[in-house]
Amino acid sequence: MTPSQLDSDGRLRHLLTLDGLPRATLLQLLDRAGQIRDAAVGRVGKRNVLAGTAVCTLFFEPSTRTRSSFTLAAQRLGADVLNFDASTSSTRKGETARDTMRNLEAMGVRGFVVRHPEDGAVERLAEAAGEGTALVNAGDGRSAHPTQGLLDMLTLRQAKGSDFSRLKVAIVGDVRHSRVARSDLHALRTLGVGEIRVCGPKSLLPEDDILEGCVVGEDFDALLEGADALMMLRLQRERMEEGLVASLDGYHQQYGLTAERLRRAAADAVVLHPGPINRGVEVTDEVADGPQSWVLRQVANGVAVRMAVLETLLG
Q1: What's the pTM?
Q2: At what angle do helices 146-160 and 295-314 cross, to 10 degrees?
Q3: SS3 category, 140
Q4: Phi and psi for 76 in degrees, rounded to 5?
Q5: Which phi and psi (to 5°) does residue 176 adopt?
Q6: What is the average pLDDT across 9-17?
Q7: Is the peptide bond prior to 276 cis by the omega test (within 30 degrees of 0)?
C-alpha cells in the first residue's frame, strides 16, 4: 500500500492503486456504486453532494471514456468541473505537473483526477498536495488504473454474484503493458477469486511477480475451457513496431476471441474489455455486440464507480 493513500485513521484520502487497498474499503466503494447507479446513468436527478466543490480532470495523456466518465460523475454529484488538457496548457511552456496542480489548488480546486504517462506520477502529486485535496489515479504509466479495476469488479459482481471464490477469470492479451490488468489482478485477489488465468504471447507477459499464483500460458484455447469471465485487453499497435507481435492477423488467429472460441468457456461466461476495442483483433464483431458482452455495462458502471470514489473522497 502506498503510504499517502490512507490517512492516519485508515480512511481513504486518495485513490492511487488497488494494490493493498483493504477489502472492506474496496467493498464499500463497490456497494456505494451499486446504490447510486441509477443516478450515474441519468435515471434520477443530480445528488448535489459536491455542490460548490471544484474538481479538475488533469490529463497529461489523451482519453475519451475515462475523462468523459469522470466528468459526468462529478457533474452528477453537483461539482464544478474543470477539464485540463496538457496539449493546450502551460506545460508546453515548461511548467511542471506539480506546479500546475498547486496553482489550481490555489484557485480552490479540491479534487484532481489525474492521468499521466509516467509510473508513480500520481503518487508524487498526491504527496505534494495540500491538506484537504484528494487525488484519483485515472491511469499512470503501466502501474495502475484503480477505477477501471473497480468498475470491472462491479460488472463481474453484477454478472456472477458477490461470491468470487468459485469463479475462473481469464485475462487475455498484452498484460505486460496493461495498467488495467494490474489493477484487475490486485482487485481479484483481494476479493478472493477462485482461479486467475493469464494468457498471451510470451513477449506480452510480465516478468515480475504480479502473476504469482495465476495459471499462466500461451495456449488461449486451453485456458478458455470452463472460464466464467474473459477480460480481453487492448493490443496497442506500437507492440508491432517494437517487434513484440509479428502481425495483427497472426495475433487474432492465436488470441482473438471469436464466437466459436467463446463456446469453450462456460455457457454463461461474460466478456469484458476496457476499450477502445480493436474489432477483429481482440474480439470479433459477433462477440463484441453479442449477448455475452458486458462491455457497455462496464462503461455505464464506470460513471457509478467514479461517483462513489469522488463522493467518498470529497463528500
Answers
A1: 0.94
A2: 120
A3: strand
A4: -75, -10
A5: -60, -40
A6: 94
A7: yes
- Name the residue with cell 447510486: 36
Taking 70 as the threshold, does the pLDDT of residue 89 lie above it? no
Residue 26 contacts by C-beta under 8 Å, 6 or more apart in sequence?
18, 150, 153, 187, 190, 191
- Count how many Cα atoms sit within 13 Å of the Cα of residue 74 in the half-sphere of its side chain: 24
User: DSSP characters for 147-207?
Assistant: HHHHHHHHHHHHHH-S-GGG-EEEEES--TT-HHHHHHHHHHHHTT-SEEEEES-GGGS--
Q: What is the pLDDT of residue 22?
A: 95
What is the identity of the amino acid at 147?
A: T
Q: Which residues of 92-113 are buried (b: 16+ CB within 10 A; e: fewer)?
A: eeeeebeebbeebbeeebbbbb
Residue 248 neighbours by CB distance under 10 Å? 17
Non-local (6+) Cβ contacts of 203 within 8 A are 176, 239, 244, 245
- Pure H helices in 36-91: 37-40, 65-76
Residues 49-72 pLDDT 10s: 999 999 999 999 888 899 999 999
Summarised one tens digit per residue, pLDDT across range 237-275 is: 666 567 678 888 999 999 999 999 999 999 999 999 999
Q: Which residues of 53-81 are buried (b: 16+ CB within 10 A; e: fewer)?
A: bbbbbbbbbeeeebbebbbbbbbbbebbb
If you ran DSSP here, which 8-state letter would residue 214 be given? S
Can you tell me whether residue 12 is helix, strand or coil?
strand
Q: Which helix (H) or strand (E) holds 283?
A: none
The CA distance from 133 to 136, in Å, is 10
DSSP state of 29: H
pLDDT for position 9: 87
Give the dihedral sign, CA 171/166/185/113.
positive
Q: For residue 236, how many other CB atoms are within 10 A of its CB?
A: 17
Q: Which residues of 188-210 are buried (b: 16+ CB within 10 A; e: fewer)?
A: bbbbebebbbbbbbeebbbeeeb
